[in-house]
Amino acid sequence: MPSPTESKLSPRLLTRTALLTGFGVVMFLFESLLPRPLPWAKPGLANIATLLALYLLGAASAWAVTLLRVLLGSFFLGAFLNPGFWLSLAGGLAAVAAMTLLKKFGEKQFSVIGISLAGALAHVLAQIIVAGFLIVRRWEIVYLLPAMLWPALFAGVVVGLAALFLLERLSRLRDGASRTWSGKFSKFETF
Amino acid sequence: MKTLVKYLRPGDGVILVLFAALAIGSFRFGSFVRAGEETGARLVAIITVNHREVAMVALNKNSGFNVQGALGEITLQIEKNSIRVRRSTCPNQVCVRQGAARHSGEMLVCVPNRLVIWLRGEAPPSDRTPQESRGDAVTH
User: Fold this and answer.
1) Residues A164/A48, Cβ–Cβ less than 8 Å
2) Global pTM exceeds 0.90
3) What is the domain range of residue B75?
4) Is residue A91 assigned to a domain?
5) What does the DSSP 8-state code read for residue A34?
């Protein structure tokens, strides 16, 4: 288990960051295929990857996972430098900034779920500001807030729960306490 | 459930309450679906492409017309004091699926075409040119 304060860019940190980036990109592509009632209401499953990176690998990895996911995701969707790309970038950066800050200064006060909610909130606020400047340039954009905040609230909780369960599983793997996996994979170092 | 509770921290509750308060408070602005209360023949649609106003039409006369978006032609239709995007050249057709806008403050947006239509509640402009109507205001 690399400590979050690991200063050198070890191959282990690098490969794990890459693994989580891949996971984030897959989640991002998967959820962009899902039908959605409102064009902007994506569940934000890719944020699970950012949360895992933040908790298991540290802030630098979380930033890398988010930035690379936005970039690679837009390449795959053919949306690079589109208005949608800027929205994703703004949302992603705001979310990761909020989550790293909150985790740094309030690790004891917040669980993954709280951190995830903060990320979802920052994501919505950043997107509405960027959409306001980039697309509509009218203050009437605030009419969109309820339709963005409510889905984000539920999505934030769901993503937080998913990250919590995954972290719990992964820590059990690390401690070798998992009945189902320890036998098979005890040789391998896990997260 | 009990196992879940042991992971929760007080800050989670704080941020949940803050988030929910914002979400509830944002209804003050009106919802996107019903932005304003005003409907009817007094509404005017302001049509902008790339942040530039290309047309301003009253919703009291049924009509269909095209505007040039960033990608291509967009067909708009005005009927029964509402406006909608009938056809668009954009890939996702989100603007078409948005349906009709009929309340003041409501917006129709086509991001790929850089088109924003928003409704303003006021007396429909007459068919006269601005100069003539200014003259009217003086003589009346």
Assistant:
1) no
2) no
3) 43-123
4) yes
5) S
What is the token pair recorded at B129? 């040119």
Determine the distance in angstroms separating the CA of B110 from the nearest CA of chain A, rounded to an integer.
Answer: 9
The contact set of B with A (CB < 8 A) is 4, 7-12, 14-16, 18-20, 22-23, 26-27, 29-33, 35, 51, 92, 94, 105-107, 109, 111-112, 114, 116, 118
Kindly provide the b/e burial profile for residues B12-49, where b requires at least 16 CB atoms within 10 angstroms of the residue's own CB.
beebbeebeebbeebeebbebeebbebbeebbbbbbbb
Q: Give me the count of residues in chain A.
A: 191
Domain of A39, in residue numbers: 11-177
What is the pLDDT tens value at each position of chain B, 140 positions in all? Answer: 667 888 899 999 999 999 999 998 887 765 544 455 677 778 899 999 988 999 999 998 899 999 999 889 999 999 989 999 999 998 878 889 888 988 887 888 888 898 999 888 765 444 433 433 333 343 33
The CATH number linked to B84 is 2.60.320.10
ipTM of predicted assembly, 2 dp? 0.82
Cα–Cα distance measured from residue B94 to residue A151, given in angstroms and rounded to the nearest whole number: 18
Provide CB contacts within 8 A for B100, sequence distance 6+: B82, B83, B84
- The CATH number given to whatever domain includes residue A114 is 1.10.1760.20
